[in-house]
């Protein structure tokens, strides 16, 4: 067993291939869940991010081995100093630009892509661990991240539902119609935490609109009842729930 462990941590062609394959599998597993949900970065993006990070560490190890071996005399003559950590640091810095590109501002002040961005960052770190031969760390991280991205998503949605909080986007005819909407929330005993007014253009016409953050009464029929009650108002053009 010790011989196998020593071999896996050695630097050879076969272990290099193993590290690249591990990073590719890890990135693909993380990207699968994002691709299934039609997110900006999918399987190939995650795989390439992880493989690239792994390759950067392998290059660092290769340079270190060459400086100790075939290039040793030249190094002694010029007094060259080597810092293998700079490759990993460059990857961490560079991945920030890639991850930032997946974060977009959606309509009505919503932000999308944060989970994808952090997933790409994690995929890069897993690639670094794979390139360094830290197999146990890479495998455990992949397992934990797969659970977080694929298993906890429905649990998170259920948790948010149980909080009885809801964000609504409502379009209506006139600014004074907002009082009718507020009457509905009062009747259903929903507490308005935040209210933001907007102006929305739809089919060439300009309508007033609002984003409401509500805390619903636990005894009411929660989301469906307040959505239907507001939608039944003659002055309301559109009402939809904003889901993060």
Question: Mind explaining what this structure looks like?
Answer:
With 244 residues, this protein is of the alpha+beta class. It folds into 2 domains: 2-160, no CATH class; 165-241, Alpha-Beta Plaits, CATH 3.30.70. The chain is 60% helix and 17% strand. The chain has 9 helices and 6 strands. It has helices spanning 2-8, 13-36, 43-68, 72-78, 85-100, 114-131, 135-162, 178-187, 222-231, and strands at residues 104-105, 111-112, 165-172, 191-202, 205-215, 236-241. The strands form 2 sheets. A 4-stranded antiparallel β-sheet has the order 4-5-3-6. A hairpin with a 2-residue loop joins strand 4 (191-202) and strand 5. The protein is elongated. The model has no long low-confidence stretch (mean pLDDT 79).
Q: What is the total number of structural domains? A: 2
Helix content: 55-70%
Number of strands: 6
First CA to last CA: what distance? Answer: 48 Å
Average pLDDT, rounded to a whole number, is 79
H and E string? HHHHHEEHHEHEEHE
Q: How much beta, percentage-wise?
A: 15-25%
How would you characterize the largest beta sheet? 4 strands, antiparallel
Give, in spatial order, the strands making up the sheet with the most strands. Answer: 4-5-3-6
Task: Report the principal-axis shape.
Answer: elongated
Helical stretch tally: 9
Secondary-structure class: alpha+beta
Radius of gyration: 26 Å
Instruction: Report low-confidence residues grouped into runs of 5 or more.
Output: none
């Amino acid at each position: 067993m010790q011989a196998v462990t020593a071999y896996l941590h050695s630097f050879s062609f076969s272990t290099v291939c193993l590290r690249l394959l591990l990073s590719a599998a890890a990135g693909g597993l993380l990207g699968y869940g994002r691709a299934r949900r039609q997110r900006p970065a999918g399987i190939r993006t995650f795989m390439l991010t992880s493989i690239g990070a792994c390759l950067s560490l392998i290059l660092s190890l290769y340079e270190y081995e060459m400086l100790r071996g075939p290039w040793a005399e030249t190094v002694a003559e010029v007094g060259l100093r080597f810092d293998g950590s700079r490759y990993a640091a460059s990857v961490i810095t560079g991945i920030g630009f890639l991850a930032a590109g997946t974060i977009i501002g959606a309509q009505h002040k919503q932000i999308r892509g944060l989970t994808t961005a952090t997933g790409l960052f994690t995929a890069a770190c897993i690639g670094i661990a794979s390139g360094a031969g830290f197999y146990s760390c890479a495998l455990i991280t992949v397992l934990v991240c797969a659970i977080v991205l694929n298993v906890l998503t429905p649990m998170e949605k259920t948790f948010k539902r149980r909080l009885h909080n809801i964000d609504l986007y409502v379009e209506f005819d006139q600014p004074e119609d907002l009082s009718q909407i507020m009457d509905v929330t009062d009747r259903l005993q929903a507490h308005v935490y935040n209210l933001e007014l907007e102006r929305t253009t739809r089919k060439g016409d300009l309508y007033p609109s609002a984003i409401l953050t509500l805390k619903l009464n636990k005894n009411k029929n929660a989301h469906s009842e307040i959505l239907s009650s507001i939608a039944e108002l003659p002055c309301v053009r559109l009402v939809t729930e904003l889901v993060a």
